[in-house]
């Protein structure tokens, strides 16, 4: 069984499945995907991802505010976040983090919001889903500052081995998406070869970043199989072994998720 550890089910392009989310999920299930983590990115979509988790036994969700969704007059309140995290199907916090690639001018605001999510993680013990782009030093500094006793994950990892190793040293997991299959991603493939077997996750980040051979098309949860097959070949292990390892890692990182229940 595979788990798509990071997808945005409320934002999928469902054209290939006649506009039906259920058909899209069934297509993934038919390819061995047994669980989905639907990710919150803003206060506006928190109710939507929660409703999807309530509706589907094999879907859990997270709640948080993406760094590119943080607005000067709408920094998430700790009380709001803690209230959302109290829901039993909300198994993680995020995605949160720092993205200076698109919005370097809002670095201070992003850091303020990231610290709030880190505090929520400290108070609830729920794992943290981290988005980081062009913000390596600040991301690691804030994670070290927080010194969370529980683990989290750097999702859709695109950095180098030095950052991966630093995150692993802090207890974090590394999640790889379809980017690892791209022709120009050799540096990321080197990271993929070196991540310990007990710290690796797979994801689609659908509807974005479809893996080869679907690159350029809308991404779907069913394509997490291509990511996993590629990684198994890259790491020189059977696909079934990688599926078992990554699913076990997901269960360990997200103990509240109802995987296989």
TrEMBL record:
InterPro entries: DNase_TatD-rel_CS (IPR018228), Metal_Hydrolase (IPR032466), TatD-like (IPR001130), TatD/YcfH-like (IPR015991)
Gene3D superfamilies the UniProt entry points to: Metal-dependent hydrolases
Binding site for a divalent metal cation 1: 6, 8, 95, 205
Entry GO CC: cytosol
TM helices/strands, residue ranges: none
Binding positions for a divalent metal cation 2 per the UniProt entry: 131, 155
A Pfam family per the record: TatD_DNase
Superkingdom of origin organism: Bacteria
PROSITE patterns: TATD_1, TATD_3
Keyword Hydrolase belongs to the record: yes
GO MF annotation list: DNA nuclease activity; hydrolase activity, acting on ester bonds; metal ion binding
Keywords: Hydrolase, Metal-binding
Family: Belongs to the metallo-dependent hydrolases superfamily. TatD-type hydrolase family.
PANTHER family found in the cross-reference section: D-AMINOACYL-TRNA DEACYLASE (PTHR46124:SF2)
UniProt-recorded name of the protein: TatD DNase family protein
